[in-house]
Amino acid sequence: MQNSWDVIVIGAGVAGGLAAFDCARRGLRVLLVEKRSFPRWKVCGCCFNANAMAAVTAAGLPDLFCDQGAVPLDHLRLGWSGRTMNLPLPGGWALSRERFDQALVNAAIAAGATVRFQTGAVLEEMSSAGRMVRLRPSGGAPVERIQARVVLIAAGLQHQVLASSDPASSSSTSGSRLGAGCLISDDEVLFESGAIHMAIGRSGYVGLVRREDGALNLAAAFDRAVVQSSSGVSHAAELVLRQAGFPLPHEMETSRWQLTPALTRRADVFSGDRFLLLGDSTGYVEPFTGEGMAWALAAGAAVAPFVQEAQGEWTTDLEQRWQRRLETLTIRRQRLCTLLSTLLRHPVATDALFKLGSQWPAIPQRIISSLNQVSPLMASL
Ligand SMILES: Cc1cc2nc3c(=O)[nH]c(=O)nc-3n(C[C@H](O)[C@H](O)[C@H](O)COP(=O)(O)OP(=O)(O)OC[C@H]3O[C@@H](n4cnc5c(N)ncnc54)[C@H](O)[C@@H]3O)c2cc1C
User: Fold this and answer.
1) Count H helices, E strands: the chain?
2) Given ligand 1 and candidates 293, 297, 330, which is best to mutate, with the most ligand atoms within 8 Å of its CB?
3) 353-381 confidence digits (pLDDT tens)
4) Is 25 within 8 Å of 5 (Cβ atoms)?
5) Within this chain, do residues 296 and 167 fall inside the same structural domain, yes or no?
């Protein structure tokens, strides 16, 4: 493998996959490095909103969701304390991460990118030609040191690409919940296709959606204390579903849950010498109806011009512009999600929201449509 690249992208999730594709189609020499083997399941609700669609379209892959057999989503069914609220959800899709992330990687390869799976990457010191990166292939193959003009860090939550003392490294906030997820293959009709079913309980929430293969995807966030209690994550999910008044999927007792690190986090800065952060590596805010991947994809679709510019000199002005770009594309839109997740942690506030929503359904509908509104910036990418 060659030793020097225009750009090394670390992490082949939604942000890294789209960024690698966009950089490769602009003629840059791209190496995409991913520590796991693909296709891989990961904890995620698998729901994409209209903003995610806009980002993928802006990057030049308008047919990706249809080509992959994504399931159109048309409503959100919220459950709280035995009450249900149905809200229209325009322009969403459900698609497994196995298929979506693999499709982005395939597009990147077709555009000319080189991909290394089962290889962990760590950022090292500056070199005369850019930035050094250490690759550690799994299975005991020797460690390699390579370099690039620019490194994109798209390695998700709590990545270990940077030293924890680096200002661009994120840390979790106090009271941060833990994410969890599992996949259930059943043919029940309890949770119909085309909807996000969201159960809200006192110690967290559980989102259920039917994927393109008919399997039921469960993704949840729980208070740390509940997950760490002896009864564990499956019991925590059962409790939330019962509190919301949702039925329990048959195979839930035997399902194997996977946990994430603490969710809510933020990096102080989104760049450093010859590297830029994107996606969850910049921080994480609990999403509701597909915002998480939309933010990561928006960053993935916006970064290639910065990478092209950085093939020459690296300037603090470029770093500042990337910071501002991300703030406009994502950070401001995250405020509404932060506010909602804070309110939904308090039973009194949740109760009030449900009462308000049943009397004036236009209010929650307006909140959901503003979360799903396509950012005008997408059109200018
Ligand atoms: C419970 C839960 C439910 C969610 N539901 C939704 C939802 O329904 N809709 C939505 O839009 N968002 C949802 N999200 C958020 C969404 O999953 C993330 O925002 C999104 O995956 C971020 O994409 P990313 O590319 O930044 O990171 P990731 O998708 O996490 O990808 C990072 C990749 O980097 C790889 N990696 C990590 N470290 C290294 C390394 N050192 N070297 C090489 N590779 C590395 C990882 O293996 C991974 O493949 C949910 C999240 C959680 C926790």
Assistant:
1) 13, 19
2) 293
3) 888 888 888 888 888 887 777 777 666 67
4) no
5) yes
Which whole-number Å values give the CA distances from 235 to 94, 176, 230, 249, 345, in the listed order?
Answer: 26, 20, 9, 13, 19
Does the beta carbon of 300 lie inside 6 Å of ligand 1? no
The pLDDT, as a whole number, for residue 230 is 64
Question: Residue 64: its pLDDT value, please?
Answer: 97
Whether the CB of 46 sits within 6 Å of ligand 1: yes
For the question of whether the overall pTM of this predicted structure is more than 0.85, the answer is yes
251 plus 371 within the same structural domain: no
Tell me: do 162 and 186 sit in the same domain.
Answer: no
- Examine the fold and report which residue of 243, 261, 279 is the final residue of a domain before the chain moves on: 261
Query: How far, in Å, is the centroid of ligand 1 from the Cα of 362?
Result: 32
Residue 82 falls within a domain, yes or no?
no
- Which amino acid residue places its CA nearest to atom 33 of ligand 1? 11
User: Which of 200, 229, 261 is the C-terminal boundary of a domain?
Assistant: 261
State if residue 156 touches ligand 1 by the CB under 6 angstroms criterion: yes
In angstroms, what is the span from residue 358 Cα to ligand 1's centroid?
34
Is residue 87 one of the residues assigned to a domain?
Answer: no
Structurally, how many domains does the chain consist of? Answer: 2
Residue of the nearest CA to atom 50 in ligand 1? 44
Q: What residue numbers bound the domain in which 367 lies?
A: 4-72+93-173+263-348+360-379
Q: CA 381 to CA 372: how far, in whole Å?
A: 18
Question: Kind of pairing, strands 119-127 and 130-137?
Answer: antiparallel
pLDDT given for residue 291 in this prediction: 86
Per-residue model confidence (pLDDT) at position 170: 83
Q: Do 238 and 309 belong to one domain? A: no
Q: Within this chain, do residues 253 and 276 fall inside the same structural domain, yes or no? A: no
Residue ranges of the chain whose pLDDT lies below 70: 1, 187, 230, 331-332, 377-380
Q: Which atom of ligand 1 is nearest to the CA of 181?
A: 1
pLDDT for position 176: 86
Token pair belonging to 319: 């770093």
For ligand 1, whether the C-beta of 92 sits within 6 Å is no
- On whether both 127 and 217 belong to a single domain, the answer is no
Cis before 90 (ω within 30): no
